[in-house]
Structures are given as structure tokens and as C-alpha cells.
Amino acid sequence: MIEKIYTKRFEVFFFSKIAVLFGSLIIPIALFEDVISPILFQINLLAGILLISKKRKLMWFFIALFVVASLIHFYSLVTGSPASIFNFLRMIIYFLFYVIVTLEIIAQVWRSKVVNEATIFGMISGFISLGLLGFFICLSIEMAHPKSFAGLLIEDAVLTERLIYFSYINLSSI
């Protein structure tokens, strides 16, 4: 069963990433930011575990990251507002996850002998992961120094959406 799903690892990772990026277009932003987005990131962590499942030690490390991120999400849902230290910890987990997964995607795509739809999904997923790395760097800066990106905000804009946009615009221009 896992082997069959493993052959579709790039597609699973790609679609979980698309849900993270574009879920706010379907779901109201307040609900998406507080409840749905962390769940989608957890699903993306699971897809990343599938992506690196051939490397056992790394897979167990990702499972530990998944458990810690799940506990942080559960704590924030129970208490109503997460402490800033937990937000930083969650950002560190996501950043570490995306660094490792991005490098692994690039390595797997590079080693592929045939360019097929799975390889293309892998390349696109790698690009999206690079953009999310930039987003987490910007978000960490904003968490450490509030109002760092105040110039990005326009009326009724949500900062996380603007930071994602900022990250991908910078990545595209590079």
C-alpha cells in the first residue's frame, strides 16, 4: 500500500501544498488562519513524511516534528491563543521541514531518469517549497520585530497573505 502511494508522492505533496496556498480563497480568512491552515500544514507534513519515507532516520525525525507541531496546534486550539514561544517553535518546525523537503525534492527530481508528470509535479512542488521557505523567513522576522513589513499592508489585508505574495514575487524576480 505504501509503495503504491509512494509512487504518487510528488502529486500528494503538490496537492497538499496547493491546499495550503489557496485554501484562503475558498474558506473565510479568519477560520482559515486560525483553524484550517495549521491542519493543512499538518497534512503537508504527512505528505513530506511520505516523500522521504525511503530514508528511515529522516522519516522518524519528521514524525517527531509532526507530533510536536500537532501538540502545539492542539494547545493553541484548547487555550484559544498560542503563546509566542510556541509560534516561534512552530515556525522553526515548518522552516526545518521545508528546508529538508526542498533539498530532498531537488535530489529526487535530479536523480530521475525520465521526465514524466511525477517529475514535473516534483519540480513545481520544489518551487512552491522555496517560496514557502521565504515566507517562513519573513514571518519569523515579523514575529521577532513586529511591523517590519508594515509597508506591505493595504486596507483590510491579512499580513500572512501579503508575506506569501511578497515571498513569491521575490522568488519570481530572482
What report would you give on this structure?
- With 174 residues, this protein is mostly helical.
- It has one domain.
- It contains seven helices and no strands.
- Helix 2 runs antiparallel to helix 3 and helix 3 crosses helix 5.
- The longest helix is centred in the middle third of the chain and has 28 residues.
- The protein starts with a helix and ends with a helix.
Short description:
With 174 residues, the chain is mostly helical.
Any chance you could write out the topology, listing elements then pairs?
Blueprint: H1 2-6, H2 9-22, H3 29-51, H4 56-79, H5 84-111, H6 117-144, H7 159-173
Helix pairs in contact: 2-3, 2-6, 3-4, 3-5, 4-5, 5-6, 6-7
Keywords:
174 residues, mainly alpha, 7 helices, 79% helix, globular
Largest sheet: none
Span of the ends, CA to CA: 40 Å
Shape: globular
In DSSP terms, counting alpha (H) and pi (I) runs of 4 or more, how many helices?
A: 7
Uncertain segments are none
Q: Averaged pLDDT, please?
A: 84
Structural class by SSE content: mainly alpha
In which range does the helix fraction lie? over 70%
SSE order: HHHHHHH
Beta-strand portion reads under 5%
| Rg on CA atoms, Å | 16 Å
- What count of structural domains? 1
| Total beta-strand segments | 0
